[in-house]
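Query structure, 377 tokens:
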């Protein structure tokens, strides 16, 4: 419907003549559809007589101005031998755009009648109302909504068919284009329940994988959140699972890592974006306070998470020798079978060499003490 502020008169009780001429405009719209154009048609009437017709043809004519209204105006002006169309009325199946509205005003039309409103580009009240500008030197009366539903149906069918055709021609994205084949992880069975989500708003359809030991959080006991560093994945914390005891332990594979999806462009994967994903994920899991275990390379992500939600407590205290750079372990390469799967790691820039940083025996012992678990052997 046309907004109340529009200069267009309401469509209720449209005069029979308006309905008659709009049906002729609809026939022009059908001809446009059969020619592969957006189905919009128009007619120009003078003193109760059909003067000219027009339909959309910008594709065939290679003409951005080839709208139904413009073509009908050109034909009417040629028929009258005058660029002024005073006393004429134009009937069009779709609300005129700003280009057409300007042309209709320039032609000095007495009246414009349209069928379906155009909420995206309509210039007779839906987006703007050029016909209601008091400063203009000519004013054209406008009526909207005549046979509105009948005029909208061919447009809806046209764009529905176009979307279906686009889907049919689209090349489906191979599953392994974004996700590492499962065979790469056969040597590393998950130490806890593997879970997935693609429902978080920040993920925009990407799939996040994580591990959860399923322990309910005790009263006042924050969950333990293990975050791997750049180029790593949740396997970094395999030795941590038996130490968690009664604490809930959550270990996600950040997007671009591990079993999670790996987009080819890493520009999205900033510390702030990772923190947004983690915050939405923790909220979805109804997790309150957390204590974070993470290598030093994750400082920016942990700080961004704390700023977003206030849920990230200071890192679980570990001694300086808890992390050590050493030879790259075999598990490090499992999620990254080729350069395409490594593409997003470029987002970490100089931090990527931190992939070889690992928990030391001293670090595991400190974790066991902090969690009240027996020291690992």
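Result returned for the query:
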């Amino acid at each position: 419907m046309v907004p109340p502020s529009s200069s267009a008169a309401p469509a209720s009780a449209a005069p029979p003549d308006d309905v008659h001429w709009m049906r002729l405009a609809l026939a022009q719209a059908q001809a446009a559809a059969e020619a592969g154009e957006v189905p919009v048609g128009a007619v120009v009437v003078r003193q109760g007589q059909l003067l000219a017709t027009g339909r959309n043809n910008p594709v065939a004519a290679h003409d951005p101005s080839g709208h139904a209204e413009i073509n009908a105006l050109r034909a009417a002006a040629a028929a009258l031998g005058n660029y002024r169309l005073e006393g004429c009325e134009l009937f069009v199946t779709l609300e005129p755009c700003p280009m057409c509205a300007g042309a209709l005003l320039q032609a000095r039309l007495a009246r414009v009648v349209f069928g379906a409103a155009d909420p995206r580009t309509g210039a007779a009240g839906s987006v703007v109302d050029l016909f209601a500008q008091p400063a203009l030197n000519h004013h054209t009366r406008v009526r909207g909504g005549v046979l509105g539903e009948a005029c909208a149906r061919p447009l809806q069918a046209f764009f529905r068919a176009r979307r279906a055709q686009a889907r049919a021609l689209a090349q489906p994205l191979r599953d392994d284009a974004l996700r590492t084949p499962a065979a790469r992880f056969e040597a590393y069975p998950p130490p806890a329940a593997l879970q997935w989500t693609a429902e978080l708003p920040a993920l925009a359809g990407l799939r996040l994988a994580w591990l959860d030991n399923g322990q309910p959080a005790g009263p006042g006991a924050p969950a333990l959140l293990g975050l791997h560093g750049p180029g790593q994945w949740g396997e970094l914390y395999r030795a941590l699972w038996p130490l968690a005891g009664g604490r809930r332990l959550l270990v996600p594979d950040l997007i671009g890592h591990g079993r999670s999806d790996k987009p080819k462009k890493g520009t999205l994967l900033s510390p702030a974006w990772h923190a947004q994903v983690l915050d939405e994920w923790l909220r979805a899991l109804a997790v309150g306070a957390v204590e974070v275990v993470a290598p030093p390379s994750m400082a920016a992500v942990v700080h961004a998470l704390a700023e977003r939600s206030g849920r990230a407590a200071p890192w679980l205290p570990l001694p300086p020798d808890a992390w050590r750079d050493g030879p790259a372990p075999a598990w490090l390469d499992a999620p990254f079978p080729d350069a395409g799967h490594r593409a997003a790691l470029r987002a970490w820039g100089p931090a990527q060499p931190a992939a070889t940083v690992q928990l030391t025996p001293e670090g595991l012992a400190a974790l066991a003490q902090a969690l009240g678990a027996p020291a690992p052997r």
